[in-house]
Amino acid sequence: MIKKLNHIGIAVKNLEQSIPIFQKIFGNESVHREIVSDQKVEIASFKVGDVIIELTSPTSEDSPISGFLEKRGEGIHHLAFESDDVQSDLNHLSQNSVKLINETPQLGAHNMLIAFLHPKSTNGVLIEICQHKD
Ligand code: ZN
After folding, report:
1. Overall number of domains in the chain
2. Which of 28, 40, 46, 58 would give a disulfide with 66, using CB separation of 3.0 to 4.6 Å?
């Protein structure tokens, strides 16, 4: 079951250029950097209260983020909601005619299991459901 907003994903072309912009906004908060090979992205994230702002840039041309940047440009990419059981949420949503991008959870940043719902089913908003792996 979904519990709360975990992070907001923002698609950026160049992390080195974007990190200082968001550092200005959030103060000199420490930045968490991580390459997520499964998703073909590199992230830089800032913790803001309970929510993480996650700058995401592609590490290859066939990264899903590359396609997004080409089509929509930089900006908000997805909202990620934290769940206590991603697989059970996916099963439930699928039974209720919500289209899924991932039928089973994948490995994401911050050692989390993640799965995306199809934006065609969610008014154009890309929604991720995530869960701490341990
Ligand atoms: Zn995410």
Report:
1. 1
2. 58
For residue 25, count other CB atoms closer than 10 A to its CB: 10
* CB-based contact 42:59 (threshold 8 Å): yes
| Range of the structural domain that residue 14 is part of | 2-132
Instruction: Name the DSSP letter for residue 75.
Output: E
Q: How far is the CA of 42 from the centre of ligand 1 (A)?
A: 11
The neighbourhood of ligand 1, an ion, using CB within 5 A, equals 9, 80, 128
Separation of 7 CA from ligand 1 center, angstroms? 6
108 Cα–ligand 1 center, Å: 7
User: For the domain that residue 38 is a member of, what is the CATH number?
Assistant: 3.10.180.10
pLDDT digits (tens, 9 = 90+) for 85-132: 999 999 999 999 999 999 999 999 889 999 999 999 999 999 999 999
